[in-house]
Every structure is written in structure tokens, then in C-alpha cells.
């Protein structure tokens, strides 16, 4: 296990370097001139040149790359071009709001979808199974934006069960007052595809020989599903959750924009609109680091779930 972990960590270094070079090349080659963007349409040539000097954009390309590599190694991204806040402080202040909403969404999505998938797999082929698959298909065909608009109108404006927008500095107030509506709407959208996917994982395991052997030994259907089928189906379920985890830390642009949640998703969207390159670059590199870490953790979880898995 230790040898595998060290080898994977060693492989992450060139991968991260490739991401850094790609990000630097994309911003330099296709991002436009930040000095002209920050200066605006009415800025004179002298003002644009002054901005370019302040940002260090008049230096040779190799020196700019060296500065960017230093920022990556030290995790010091300088100041935001739009707000003049330290980028690290800006991202750290926005992360709690994103996690307050996105973590409950992920936990509820995964739990409900797994339970529903187990329930319909137990009655596979029945009217209940078919009806649930029809309902999930209908839910999948409706845009998330429709859920947000209808949910805000019905549950907030008409019924008054939730506030439409708002956020506070208290975690518990946010969880009890402002987060439930966006979490509810996101779960209504996300649980349908997850249920269909997890149902396919479980049904694939039900057809395996070890299930027939367990039944031949006299185990009941519930015991077979919970002790044997679910444990083996957890591997693809964990893999699917690991794909979603990086998005938890970035947030949902739609949720944070429509509900005025001061999270990372809305901040990234504002940074793109403002051409705030330091913020966008920092988020991109952090997301790459996070993805590689989650992939490594997922491989270790495979081993914990099923000791027969060999890490090579």
C-alpha cells in the first residue's frame, strides 16, 4: 500500500506541472490583454501601459511563467485584480458558504439514491419499479432552472415556507433558514439520475453467481441485498461520488447566483465576468490538486470496501 501511495504521489507531480503549463498557456494565448480589459474602453494607451507594468505583463514570458510557478508552489496568488483582496483570503472566505449548501446536497443525493435503488432493485420488474423509472425520466427532462424558478415562486413567494434569498455569518442560521430551499431543489434534480445509475449497479451485482449461492444457503432477500449486493455495488457508487466531489468545493453557479449565496461558484462567475485572472488561475490549480487527491483517496477506499482489490 505504501509503495502504491508513493508511486501515485510521484505521478501527480508531472500531471500537476502539465495542468499549470496548460493554464498559463491558455491565459496567455487566448485570454486577451488583461490591461486593456481592466482599463476599459476609455483608457488611453499610456494608462493601459501603466496597468500592464503594475501587473508585470511587460516582463518576458519566461519571467511571467516563473512568477506563476512560484505562486503555485507557495499558494500565494497575490491580489485580486477586481477587489484587490488577497486571492487566498478571498477563496477561503467564500468556501464555507459553498460547503454549507453543497455537502448536504451530496450526502442527501447519495443516501436517498442508494436507498431508492435498493428498494426498486428488490421489486425489480414490478409496477413500482417501472413507475419510479418513469418518474425519474420525467424529472431528468426538466431543466434545473425550471426547478429553481418554480420552487422559489411556490415554496417561497406563495407558501412562504422559505426565504427567497439571503445569507448570514452564522452556520446554524444558514443551515436552518437559508440553505434548505436550494438543497431541497438540488436534491430533487440530482436524485433522479443517481437512482437510475445506482439501480443499474445493483442489478448488475444481483445477477452474479455469489448472489445465487447466498440464496441457495437460505439467506433472505433483504440479507442478500444488504450484506452482499450493496457491499459490491459500493465500488462503482464510490467512484461516481468521487467524480462529483470536486464540484462540491467549487459550488453550483445557478444555486449561488439565484439564491445570492456568497460562495465560490458565484465568485468564479464574477471573476470570469471581470477577467480577474488571478482568481480563475487559483481556482483552476486548486481544483486540479483536489481532483488528484480525491482520486487517490478513492483508490484507497476501494481497498477498504473490498479487501480483494489489489492496488498496483
Please describe the topology of this protein.
Elements: H1 2-30, H2 34-39, H3 45-54, H4 61-74, H5 87-122, H6 127-140, H7 144-158, H8 171-178, H9 180-206, H10 209-216, H11 221-250, H12 253-258, H13 264-274, H14 277-305
What tags apply to this protein structure?
mainly alpha, MetI-like fold, 2 domains, 14 helices, 78% helix
Integer count of domains? 2
Number of helices: 14
Tell me the structural class.
mainly alpha
Compressed to H and E, one letter per element, the order equals HHHHHHHHHHHHHH
Look at the structure and give the mean pLDDT: 81
CATH class of the largest domain: Mainly Alpha
Fourth-tier CATH superfamily name of the largest domain? MetI-like
Descriptive overview:
The structure is a single chain. With 312 residues, the chain is an all-alpha fold. Helix content is 78%, strand content 0%. Helix 6 crosses helix 9. The longest helix is centred in the middle third of the chain and has 36 residues.
Put the structure in a nutshell.
The chain is mostly helical. The protein is built from 14 helices and no strands. The protein folds into two domains: 2-74, no CATH class; 91-305, MetI-like fold.
Amino acid at each position: 500500500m505504501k509503495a502504491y501511495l508513493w508511486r501515485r504521489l510521484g505521478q501527480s507531480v508531472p500531471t500537476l506541472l502539465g495542468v499549470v503549463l496548460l493554464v498559463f498557456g491558455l491565459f496567455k494565448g487566448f485570454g486577451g490583454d488583461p490591461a486593456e480589459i481592466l482599463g476599459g474602453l476609455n483608457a488611453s494607451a499610456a494608462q493601459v501601459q501603466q496597468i500592464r507594468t503594475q501587473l508585470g505583463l511587460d516582463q518576458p514570458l519566461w519571467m511571467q511563467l516563473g512568477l506563476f510557478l512560484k505562486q503555485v508552489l507557495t499558494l500565494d496568488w497575490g491580489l485580486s485584480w477586481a477587489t484587490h483582496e488577497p486571492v487566498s483570503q478571498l477563496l477561503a472566505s467564500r468556501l464555507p458558504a459553498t460547503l454549507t449548501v453543497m455537502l448536504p446536497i451530496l450526502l442527501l443525493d447519495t443516501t436517498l439514491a442508494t436507498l431508492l435503488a435498493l428498494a426498486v432493485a428488490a421489486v425489480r420488474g414490478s409496477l413500482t419499479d417501472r413507475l419510479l423509472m418513469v418518474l425519474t425520466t420525467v424529472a431528468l427532462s426538466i431543466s434545473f432552472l425550471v426547478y429553481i424558478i418554480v420552487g422559489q415562486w411556490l415554496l417561497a413567494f406563495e407558501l412562504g415556507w422559505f426565504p427567497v434569498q439571503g445569507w448570514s455569518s452564522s452556520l446554524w442560521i444558514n443551515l436552518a433558514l437559508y440553505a434548505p430551499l436550494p438543497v431541497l431543489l438540488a436534491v430533487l434534480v440530482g436524485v433522479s439520475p443517481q437512482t437510475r445509475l445506482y439501480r443499474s449497479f445493483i442489478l448488475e451485482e444481483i445477477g452474479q453467481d455469489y448472489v445465487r449461492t447466498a440464496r441457495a444457503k437460505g439467506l433472505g432477500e433483504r440479507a442478500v441485498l444488504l450484506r452482499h449486493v450493496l457491499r459490491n455495488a459500493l465500488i462503482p457508487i464510490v467512484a461516481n461520488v468521487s467524480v462529483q466531489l470536486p464540484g462540491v468545493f467549487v459550488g453550483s453557479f445557478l444555486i449561488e447566483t439565484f439564491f445570492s449565496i456568497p460562495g465560490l461558484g458565484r465568485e468564479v462567475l464574477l471573476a470570469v465576468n471581470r477577467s480577474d485572472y488571478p482568481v480563475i488561475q487559483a481556482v483552476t490549480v486548486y481544483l486540479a490538486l483536489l481532483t488528484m487527491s480525491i482520486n487517490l483517496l478513492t483508490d484507497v477506499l476501494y481497498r477498504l470496501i473490498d479487501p480483494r482489490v489489489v492496488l498496483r
